[in-house]
Write a structure and sequence with these properties.
With 518 residues, the protein is of the alpha/beta class. It has two domains: 39 residues, no CATH class; 450 residues, Amidase signature (AS) domain (Amidase signature (AS) enzymes, Alpha-Beta Complex), CATH 3.90.1300. It has 14 helices and eleven strands. It has an eleven-stranded mixed beta sheet, sandwiched between helices. Helix 3 links the parallel strand 2 and strand 3. Helix 6 packs antiparallel against helix 14 and helix 8 crosses helix 11. The protein is globular and about 80 Å long. The protein starts with 9 loop residues before the first helix and ends in an 8-residue tail after the last helix.
């Protein structure tokens, strides 16, 4: 075993200084090298210390990569059979996990060749909670390369198919989770959401998907992108599945800094009773700015009229359930996309790419092996960095170098105005409604598509979804109709920690009949 870091050479120190625009002579470099030895010795002492890990409580085998005949939509990255406790709310449920969730002994790739060969030695907090609740984990689901696309066509393990039209995109980045639900392999799965990656695939693939309140579900042990926007949450083929899985995984975790100051003491995490809660008297606001989006300025598709019409009609059906439904204007909703962009591009560049997937300056559990694996992958296979990630890196690093973080900082400051605008609207309404995505699932582009086509199709659907990642409010996509044989999603957004209200509204809407015929 290595004793830890080596002492640097003087040439290495001269090169480091040069990267920062500092001229360092060989003699001065030798002096600094001598002064660094005590610090390096401390690193060596750290190397010798045993490192605390997250627990692994349940037996499992290594699993296997499924054959194409058993994976027709390519939703599965890996199959396994990890049985949980003999009883609990998830007993009898078979559950898939997006391949950003660490499971001890199973590959973790985040849809990327950069992480080939990396196998965690611990279970993420939500994995332990699922198994403690009696669930059986049956595999890890495919995701777009590094979870940085909203389509499903960029995964290094091959594109994922839409359950309704396999040559169309299922929505992403939690594409595999939506696909295995749509294929009937499981009734529920875990997805991740930093810009819509739970709700986009729920919308395009015709299932239910909840981005919980920021911090409600612990992110510990999951692949991170931008810590202030990381969410992990449930996807299912019914509202009941959402409630059941959320009940199992929600709760406090001292190792997740996202939760600090979010969850009140004695907060109840049982969402099952919400399924029977009436929605009579609920005030529902149809957000005008979420419809008729003009995408020409951004170079993306504009809202499809049929999507707008179906969602508007679906929202009106809440009147039949006794809710009060009105239109509301929320101008900040449109500006929020630009705030999201300023935060995400620079934040992800620093945290996920330059920070090797773990970043720094936060208290909690760090995956030291993941950061090393990603760093080695990027150094040995830089050509495997996907086009959409390279686009983020180039933009984010340019903005950092040219403007020194000004716009990331301003974006975070402006974020408070977006949050306040939503809080103000939710002071008058219990739920805000709009289309999850302004368009239905797009046809998949080929692996040989141009850079412009690949990137353009990756981010052209998140105008509505990304806002709740900025604000941290719970946001849920529920299927509400079809257009040209493809599902349409209606997005419900509520007050922070009132995820139960969204579940109640979803269950009530689901009771109205088969959404495919609406």
């Amino acid at each position: 075993m290595p004793i830890g870091p080596e002492y640097p050479s003087t040439d290495e120190l001269v090169a480091i200084a040069r990267d920062y625009g500092i001229s360092l002579s060989g003699e001065d470099a030798a002096t600094y090298r001598s002064l660094m030895k005590n610090s390096i010795n401390s690193y060596r002492a750290v190397e010798a210390m045993p490192e605390p890990k997250l627990p692994v409580k349940y037996k499992r085998d290594a699993g296997y990569r499924p054959e194409p005949v058993d994976n027709l939509l390519n939703g599965w990255m890996w199959r396994c059979e990890i049985e949980g406790a003999p009883e609990g709310i998830l007993k009898g449920e078979r559950i898939g996990l997006k391949d950003v969730v660490s499971v001890a002994g199973l590959p973790f790739t985040n849809g990327s060749r950069l992480l080939e060969g990396y196998v965690p030695d611990y279970d993420a907090t939500i994995v332990t909670r699922i198994l403690d609740a009696g669930g059986t984990i049956v595999g890890k689901t495919n995701t777009d390369d590094t979870s940085f696309s909203g389509t499903g066509h960029t995964c290094s393990h091959g594109p994922v198919g839409n359950p309704f039209k396999p040559d169309h995109n299922p929505g992403a980045s939690s594409c595999g989770s939506a696909a295995v639900i749509g294929a009937g392999d499981v009734s529920m799965a875990i997805g991740g959401d930093q810009g819509g990656s739970i709700r986009i695939p729920a919308s395009w693939s015709g299932c239910y998907g909840l981005k919980p309140t920021y911090g409600l579900v612990p992110y510990t042990g999951c692949g991170m992108i931008e810590q202030t926007m990381d969410h992990i949450g449930p996807m299912a083929n019914s509202t009941a599945g959402i409630a059941k899985l959320l009940t199992a995984i929600a709760g406090t975790d001292p190792l997740d800094p996202r939760q600090r100051g979010v969850i009140p003491k004695d907060f109840k995490f049982d969402y099952m009773e919400s399924l029977e809660k009436p929605v009579k008297g609920l005030r529902i606001g149809i957000v005008r700015e979420g419809f008729k989006i003009d995408g020409t300025e951004m170079g993306v598709p504009s809202s499809q009229p049929e999507v707008d019409a179906r969602v508007h009609a679906a929202a009106q059906q809440f009147r039949d359930l006794g809710a009060i439904v009105e239109e509301v204007s929320l101008p900040m909703h449109l500006s929020a996309y630009h705030v999201y962009t300023a935060i995400m591009l620079e934040g992800a560049t620093d945290f996920m790419i330059k920070g090797m997937g773990v970043g720094s300056n936060w208290l909690g559990f760090y995956d030291t092996n993941l950061s090393e694996a990603l760093a080695r992958g990027m150094k040995s296979h830089p050509g495997e960095v996907p086009a959409q990630v390279l686009s983020v890196l180039l933009t984010g690093e340019y903005m950092r170098r040219r403007y020194f973080g000004r716009y990331y900082s301003k974006g975070q400051n402006l974020r408070r105005l977006v949050v306040q605008a939503y809080d103000d609207a939710l002071a008058s309404y219990d739920i805000l409604v709009m289309p999850t995505t302004p368009i239905v699932a797009t046809k998949r582009v080929g692996r040989d598509a141009s850079i412009a086509e690949t990137i353009g199709s990756s981010f052209n659907m998140l105008r509505n979804t990304c806002v709740a990642d900025v604000t941290g409010h719970p946001s849920m996509s529920i299927p509400c109709g079809m257009s040209d044989g493809l599902p349409i999603g209606m997005m419900l957004t509520g007050r922070r920690l009132e995820d139960s209200t969204l579940i109640a509204a979803s269950a009530a809407f689901e009771s109205l009949g088969d959404w495919k015929t609406m």
